[in-house]
Model the fold of this input.
Amino acid sequence: MAFYVHRAFGGVVPSLARDAHAAAIGRVVADALAAAGLAADEVDAVGVTAGPGLEVCLRVGARAAVAAAVDADVPLVTVNHLEAHFPFLTLLVSGGHCQLLLARGVGDYAVLGGTLDDAAGEAFDKTARLLGLDVAAGGGPALEALAAQGDADAVPFPVPMARRRDLTTLVVAGGVAANASVRSALAGVVAATPGWSMVVPPPALCTDNGVMVAWAAAERLLGGVANEREGWAVRARWPLGGRGG
Ligand code: ATP
Ligand code: FE
Done:
């Protein structure tokens, strides 16, 4: 979400966010089609995030997606956008979530654990605001830039939950996965654990984006999800975990 429209308010204002989404949606779709070299009626299916998130914003995308699917006469697939951040042992660290998930398959997750407190991204955002940093591009990037001048060893942290499962791949997903310290600390843990490897998107694709939703929609479609053009609604809360999560 373009953060600058909310800058003066120190947080996201739903009506402004809705208007910004409505103003941007046509251009975003046109740009994506142009970049793919496709006409609107040449797509095979439409994937759309149905939640979780701000309902007023989700509805803007939902309406546009249904219209596009009807116009092109193709299937529509709804996606939980947390799933779009994508799977194995997944550390999902975003604005609203800080969870370890066991990904058993498309749409089949078990929550191994999570924070009882603020999500990691929320903690970055609040800390940046408390410190009076410029949060135009989000609190995380501002705090990361400041931390480059800090002392990484100033505070010793304990290591929780050292036990893990019969797995060998760690996927790190969500906006906080863009953070260089988070990436290198986790890469260090994985490198020190024989047989393990880590998969993490490039920093520019860690925060919410259309590619991850399209990819998750394609996985669901290939996995046999039926056309969902009708009979669904956006969801402000939509936890991952369990089948169909
Ligand atoms: P959710 O996916 O849980 O609904 P969200 O969609 O708002 O939440 P994302 O778009 O995945 O979350 O990520 C946004 C969060 O990522 C913000 O809290 C932001 O501060 C954080 N973030 C982005 N870049 C960085 C960075 N370089 N370092 C730390 N945090 C970052
Ligand atoms: Fe997100």
Observations:
- The chain has a mean pLDDT of 87.
